[in-house]
Each structure stands twice: as structure tokens, then as C-alpha cells.
Specification:
By secondary structure, the protein is mostly helical. The protein has 6 helices and no strands. Helix 2 packs across helix 3.
């Protein structure tokens, strides 16, 4: 029994020492951030994969011909030919990149702008009193349990309370 505990302690100590040596080697050999859990490889989406394949094909064709198709000083034209994207889009992305670099942020992927409803319905004190009286009316006069569905129907028809949430 005691031998098993000693072995487990030795293994634990050995693994701690191993991790320590790996970190020390990383400091001397390479950047330690490459081993961080936050720097795991990201999944590349199909759009980016197709652009990578276009760039690869472009440069392979240039290598086969052993000459550039477009002169090196025409950078945007070369990027456009390699990626298959327009020069206007490329210049827009470059501007966004410069702005993000100056601000110290990442380049943001544009998303569809959607109008969002507020998650809250603003009800004033008077309407709260009306709702409270309707709930009491369900219990005392109608002798039934007020469900949200029934309460909304009554509030919409009798007092014309506009609740767009439900």
C-alpha cells in the first residue's frame, strides 16, 4: 500500500518536473505562447480555403513560367489576380487593417445589421396597476387561474395594452 502511494507521488513529481523542463526549453527555443491553450489552431472556413487555393495556383503558375504575370510594383493588382477579389475590396480591407492596427484591435468581420427589439417592455405604474387588477379579477370574479395567454388576450381587448413581446 505504501509503495503504491510512493509510486504515485513519484509520478506526480516526475510530471511536474517534465512540465517545468518543457517550459524552460520553450523559453529558450521558441515563444511560450505557442503552447498556450488560447493559441490553438483556428478552423479555416471554406471561403478562406478557396482563396488559399487560388493564391497557391497563381504562384505555382508564376513559378512554372518562371516570370511574374504582373510586375512586382503593382501590389494591389497582384493581390487581386492571386486571390480573385476586386482591387477595391482589397484596398478596403487594407484600410480596415491599418485602422485596426492603430486602434490595437482585430479586423472585424462584417455582419448583417439587424434591427433588434428591446428585450424589455416598458410599462408605467398605471399599467402595472391595471395588470394587477386584471389578475385579481381572474381570481375573484372569474374564479380561474390567470395564464399569460388569457391575461394577454384580456389586456389587448379590454384596455388596448400593446405588448408586442408575445
Amino acid at each position: 500500500m505504501e509503495k503504491m502511494g510512493t509510486t504515485a507521488a513519484m509520478l506526480k513529481c516526475h510530471s511536474i518536473v517534465s512540465v517545468y523542463y518543457i517550459r524552460v526549453l520553450c523559453v529558450f527555443c521558441c515563444d511560450i505562447s505557442t503552447f498556450s491553450a488560447f493559441n490553438m489552431p483556428k478552423a479555416i472556413k471554406s471561403d478562406a480555403r478557396s482563396i488559399i487555393l487560388k493564391v497557391k495556383a497563381f504562384f505555382e503558375e508564376e513559378a512554372r513560367v518562371e516570370a511574374p504575370f504582373i510586375p512586382f510594383n503593382q501590389v494591389y493588382k497582384r493581390i487581386s489576380a492571386a486571390t480573385g477579389l476586386s482591387q477595391g475590396l482589397i484596398s478596403k480591407i487594407v484600410k480596415e487593417g491599418h485602422a485596426a492596427e492603430e486602434a490595437g484591435t482585430k479586423i472585424r468581420t462584417p455582419g448583417k445589421e439587424r434591427k433588434r427589439q428591446s428585450g424589455f417592455i416598458h410599462v408605467d405604474d398605471f399599467d402595472i396597476g391595471v395588470i394587477r387588477r386584471k389578475v385579481h379579477e381572474f381570481y375573484s370574479i372569474k374564479k380561474e387561474l390567470p395564464t399569460v395567454k388569457k391575461l394577454l388576450e384580456v389586456l389587448k381587448t379590454e384596455i388596448n395594452l400593446l405588448l408586442n413581446k408575445y
